[in-house]
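Sequence design from tokenized structure. All designs in this work follow the same two-part layout: the structure record, then the generated sequence. An example of the structure record is given first.
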């Protein structure tokens, strides 16, 4: 009984600091989409970090996960999700499953998520974690994310959680007309988050902000 009470108290505490994270880190920086904010409140970031990082799960920066990778800063997850402009019926491709945190947020916002991870260790861990959390609209593939997932294309939106030196042409090819691609582009020390909209006259690029992501390790 005492352990159950302690577990409930800790769960309530994590819920409180998650709501504080949304107000102080995300809304205060201009993210307004109510669907994104609701998804960020529902998805427990502490479920996607290592046990020794649970107490730091809602802090305002990336955290290390397995295989030398990171789980993104909460604000960046919310910002990138908002930039996709999802309404709920879309098919979304994610490049870089990682811990599965961004994947879970996308699963709250879209009808179907297709996620590609090049590192088998991360792919397996994320699939198991998301299954335990009850996510049913996610499809997993282990492979080179720069090549996308061609046989499931086209996609309404594509989001990359790793930085490419330039935009992989296969990702643009697999994007529907009018679709949006959100991707960090640049080298190790200098990257820009880009929003690319596929129009009839070609891709339109908009630079959102400077970012720092782990590099894309495939053909990007």
């Amino acid at each position: 009984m005492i352990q159950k009470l302690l577990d409930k108290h800790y769960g309530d505490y994590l819920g409180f600091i998650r709501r504080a994270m949304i107000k102080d880190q995300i809304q205060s920086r201009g993210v307004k989409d109510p669907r994104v904010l609701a998804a960020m409140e529902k998805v427990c970031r502490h479920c996607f970090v290592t046990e020794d990082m649970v107490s730091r799960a809602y802090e305002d920066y990336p955290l290390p996960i397995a295989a030398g990778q990171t789980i993104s800063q909460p604000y960046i997850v919310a910002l990138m999700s908002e930039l996709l402009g999802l309404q709920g019926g879309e098919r979304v491709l994610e490049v870089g499953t990682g811990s599965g945190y961004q994947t879970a947020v996308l699963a709250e916002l879209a009808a179907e998520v297709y996620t590609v991870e090049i590192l088998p260790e991360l792919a397996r861990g994320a699939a198991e974690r998301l299954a335990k959390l009850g996510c049913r609209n996610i499809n997993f593939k282990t492979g080179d994310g720069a090549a996308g997932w061609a046989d499931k294309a086209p996609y309404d939106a594509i989001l990359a959680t790793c930085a490419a030196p330039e935009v992989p042409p296969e990702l643009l090819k697999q994007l529907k007309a009018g679709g949006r691609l959100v991707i960090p582009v640049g080298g190790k020390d200098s990257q820009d988050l880009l929003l690319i909209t596929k129009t009839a006259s070609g891709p339109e690029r908009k630079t959102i902000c400077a970012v720092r992501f782990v590099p894309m390790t495939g053909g990007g």
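The first helix runs from residue 2 to 26. We note this feature because it recurs in several other targets discussed in the main text.
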